[in-house]
Amino acid sequence: MAREVASTRTPGNELQRTPVVKGTFLRPLYLVPHRLTAAERHRRISELAYKRAELRGFVLGNETEDWLDAEREVDAGRY
Prior knowledge:
Helices cover 39% and strands 19% of the residues.
């Protein structure tokens, strides 16, 4: 069975070759969104929000911002 190769550009503008099987593209693993369980997502957000508060010296008043920033970072797959 002969395999074709399709060339695509990634968001970083890098040329990427993806095998084509019977007319469908196979997606590379790193383009598949990371899936977290609800418990794992909550644990990561908690840890990151705590680290942010620790860096601020645990000054009161920014807990909500710490949590929301941590949520955005975890949901974006950066933590």
